[in-house]
Write a structure and sequence with these properties.
Shape: globular
Order of helices and strands: EHEEEEEEEEEEEEHHEEHEEEEHHHEE
Structural class: alpha+beta
Largest sheet: 8 strands, antiparallel
Number of helices: 7
Bound molecules: FE2/S2 (inorganic) cluster, fe (ii) ion
Length: about 375
């Protein structure tokens, strides 16, 4: 698990329905609420007075009020009020919690969980066709899975499992020679041509007229965003976006957005949803039974072949981000659970000191870079 990336925190709808909203990402707790300007804010959940859970409190005047002694924290993380102090007394200078950069997009509240200054941050993935009238977005589908998110990401960039995990589609292996492995600053993937899959899907769901070949590509962007584009014919395709939140080392919450450029009527939403759900359920049945739950620490504990190339490259990128000191030391985080409240450091920690919570333990930066990821980005 890696700090310094954008993570989905909740849907806009979830935040409307319940404020403050308490959530967990990478084994750590966060609270989301609408701040004084009405925009979503995301803070570390632990009250720095004596450990109350802010997410169990109330929203009062654009602040989140701790349920224990009523300290109020604004969207910037600073304490505005300590009710037990004399009227007019200022809260202590250390009374601040980590506050993270937030973007609300595609009906999802995302937080940048890390301390990088803005110009060094990876971008939140841009769905370019999101507002395009030639495309239709599905409702966000939430998938809560008992698996480690990196296993789910690796499944997403795996071109060789379809034939076995999704037999209804009758998908064969990629057409030899058609496979490419594109790279971007923040990710890599696999693109190739397939037959048969398109034929079966088109028969079943009326997705295209030419049944011969379809093109499918899948990429990761950062450690936790997965993109799959399936093109059945010119101007006919499905684009799928999976924004993954590792809840813990063995639980993942996926926010799934499906875009399509055919059957744009609302009545077709259910048909598409059913098809997606079927495929996803087949993947989940595999992912929830992998052993060990998390990816083995060394590659010698598996046999990786040519068909696993995109998986190896995903791991190369993770190694790069680990070398920058962004990988959480999850073992020590877990060992100290119950004794230490950690927070992912927010950007403000680079500007001011005197923080109450310990920064989350990370694997120290090694400075070793294979140059695969643009170090200036
Ligand atoms: S623990 Fe939060 S106000 Fe006391
Ligand atoms: Fe699959």
């Amino acid at each position: 698990m890696y700090m310094n990336f954008w993570y989905p925190i909740c849907t806009s709808e979830e935040l409307e329905a319940a404020q403050p909203l308490r959530t967990q990402v990478m084994g750590l707790r966060f609270v989301a609420f609408h701040g004084a300007d009405g925009k979503p804010c995301v803070l570390s959940d632990t009250c720095v007075h004596r450990g109350g859970s802010l997410g169990k409190g109330k929203v009062v005047d654009g602040c989140v009020a701790c349920p224990y002694h009523g300290w109020r924290f604004a969207g910037d993380g600073k304490c505005q009020l300590v009710p037990s102090l004399e009227a007019g007394a200022k809260p202590p200078a250390r009374a601040k919690v980590d506050s993270y950069p937030v973007q609300e997009k595609y009906g999802i509240v995302f937080a940048f969980l890390g301390d990088l200054p803005e110009q060094e941050r990876s971008p939140l993935y841009e769905i370019e066709e999101y507002e395009d009238p030639a495309w239709r977005a599905s409702e966000i589908m939430i998938l809560e899975i008992d698996c480690f998110y990196e296993r789910s990401m690796e499944n997403g960039v795996d071109p060789i499992h379809n034939e076995f995990v999704h037999p209804v589609q009758g998908s064969p292996q990629p057409i030899p020679g058609s496979i490419e492995h594109p790279e971007t600053t923040w990710g890599s993937g696999v693109v190739g041509n397939y037959t048969e899959l398109g034929k079966k899907m088109s028969d079943e769901e009326g997705m295209r007229s030419d049944p011969k070949v379809l093109n499918a590509g899948t990429w990761h962007h950062g450690p936790n965003t997965l993109i799959t584009w399936i093109t059945f014919a010119k101007n006919t395709g499905l684009h799928q976006y999976f924004f993954e939140a590792p809840v813990d080392g063995d639980k993942t919450k996926i926010y799934f957005i499906n875009m399509r450029s055919f059957r744009l009527d609302a009545e077709s939403d259910d048909v598409i949803r059913e098809a997606n759900l079927r495929v996803t359920t087949e993947d989940i049945a595999i992912l929830e039974n992998l052993h060990p739950v998390r990816t083995p620490a060394t590659r010698t504990r598996e046999i990786l072949t040519a068909g696993d190339k995109a998986i190896v490259r995903y791991r190369d990128y993770l190694d790069e981000w680990s070398a920058r000191g962004w990988r959480l030391d999850f073992k020590s985080l877990r060992e100290n659970d119950g004794d230490v409240a950690y927070a992912i450091p927010c950007p403000e920690r680079r500007r001011s000191g005197n923080w109450v919570l310990d920064p989350v333990p990370v694997i120290p930066a090694s400075g070793k870079s294979a140059g695969r990821v643009d170090s200036a980005a």
